[in-house]
Specification:
single chain; 2-enoyl-CoA Hydratase, Chain A, domain 1; Pdz3 Domain; 17 helices; six-stranded mixed sheet; five-stranded antiparallel sheet; 4 domains
Length: 577
Amino acid sequence: MRHTTLFTLLLLSILSTAVSADNKKKNDAFAVARNLETFSAIYKQLDMMYVDTLDADVTVGAGIRSMLRSLDPYTEYYAPEEMKDLKTMLTGKYAGIGALIKQNMKLNRVIIDEPYEGMPAAEAGLRKGDIILAVDDSSMVGKTVSYVSSHLRGEPGTTFLLKVLRPSAGNTSGKVKGEKTIDGITGQVMKIKITRKAIQMPSVPYYGIIPRAEGQTEVVGYLLLTQFTEDCSRDVRRAIVEMRSEGMTSLLLDLRNNGGGSLAEAIKIVNMFVPKDMTIVTTKGRIKRSTNEYKTTSEPIDTVMPVVVLVNGNTASASEITSGSLQDLDRAVVMGTRTFGKGLVQQTVELPHDASLKLTVSKYYIPSGRCIQAINYKHTGGGYKEHIPDSLTHEFKTRGGRTVRDGGGIKPDVEVKADSVPNIAVYLCQGGLDSTEVALGYVLDYVASHPTIAPATEFHLSDADYADFKQRVLQSGFKYDRETSKVYDELVEVARFEGYYNDAKEEFEALKKKLSHNLSRELDNNRAVISHLLEQSIITTYYYQRGSIACTLGYDTQVQEAIKLLNDKEKYKKILE
């Protein structure tokens, strides 16, 4: 009798749970239907009675995007006219001339900033600093960068006439034969016929053997991977095989500022360093097809060669799968700063009328079983987010028993902070902040007067070169916001508010005097950094992106620390124990 009663109670409990689940499902379905009906009714009333005529695409599109913003930043709606942007993001491909463009703050014109090697812009002879005047019959004068970019892009194989003005050296008012002056800018006007081409930014823009310093025994190969686009693993494999044939004994894989991309490509890259049939990633979602296990499927290239992976706060998604998996399997030392912490997986779904939805469908878990998602996205109250504090993370074990934690991204095995760039160098050399564009002017004049320069890794500005640049800056009227002045002003404001300023006025005045602006002194104090940035810009003009990357390796602190570690075998092994 007792067993019968227990069985009856258990059966009732199961039935009650099933009924409750069924009721919840019906309630959810009703809520969805009710809200969709309400939304439709609201728009019908707006369309019929609102004081102004509405654009359905704009108004409904805003409603859709507002709804998605309450979920997470990765779930996005792409209207039919935005599908090209989605395709470019997923594949890294677009059709255009293959060049970076930017706004020249001094001239208020859009200019060519960096032609890509082997692309139509470079093949047509376009150079850094060329001012874009017109695309076919459409004037580009006074237009924004995005406007000009949209006109330079188009279908592969289409041809257009590009009109540019190449400013004369120093942009002097005196003209030479063939030059014209347009809106006060003197130079050579050129009309160039360009055929658009399918452009795919290289996922591996640079790789090569790093020259050994005195006392170093390891032959270190460096590989920069900037994005996980389709087939990028093929480029990585080719680079590794080539460097191994050149004697590489250890590898430095640079994933800094790599925002991720294809999950499948990340697994293929990890597979190059670990055996076949190892579980790399497990995804877990609400529906069955979003829950999967991903294993390595091929024989590796090398399972013993020392590897250091460089990461930073912009290393995200597929980059974190790669670095985190190699860390969990004790296959590489991760160096740099903590990664972004994106442990979510997106999937693209086709919608009616040629639109698409990219939505988050699952979380991923790397070999130790941890998910490195740094932010919890809450969906109540219109949506909000909360960062996961370290105190609420959990411990996991690597294959060899080392302790790692979930949440908050991948914490490097060896923390090495990046080189800091002083404010004056940011304003001078990194674009968009200096209305005088004195650094750009110097670079263009230097290039105009130097048909060739030394190889990228050997080129340096001389003392005379920097003295010339310094003089230009002092005469240009260059100004920038100094952080010390901002902090000083904030301190004075707080001191006045709290009543301390009058008592310490003398000290405040003395401090202000100490912090007085001396541009000449600041240019001298920050010469090394400013020179490196100028050299990089000049080198890019001659040797394109690969030259720019090569020239930075010698003074990149994180790269140099990685090379030191790879040359210290005992320390490398100890970290992985």
